[in-house]
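Same chain as my last thread, 157 residues:
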Amino acid sequence: MLLYMSNGSAGTKSTPLHSVSVAGAVVREDGRLLAIRRADNGRWELPGGVLELTEAPEAGVAREVLEETGIRVEVDELTGVYKNTARGIVALVFRCKPSGGTERTSAESTAVDWLTPAEVEERMAEVYAIRLLDALDGNGPHVRSHDGRHLLLDTSA
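reply #2:
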């Protein structure tokens, strides 16, 4: 069964309100994690972006990481699904291994760096840091919601 969020009521046709983004939790052999400082807001985040309509999620991750950082990746596995309840964005995060390329900035990134887990926690907002840290713990895929600034606790249990 296919489920989606929409702006309609039961029995009426509607347009889905969510967009899907993909992001790469790129982990180097030494345990450092690839991060970018975004050009639009100056915040440190994982490389990623909106999934194209006909694009497979794994292909989208590889494309976005390469576009924003200059790094080619091999996509390993889905490590988390993160919903921004304020903006209607569902992000799929995949753990990846670097497979080539050279770090460089882009129109979307003003800095590219390989961070330690401690540096991730220092530089990134909670809702982005958790995506990288979840990718490291091996207990995924994690499913989390946030309001754009803070993680929301699961109250369904």
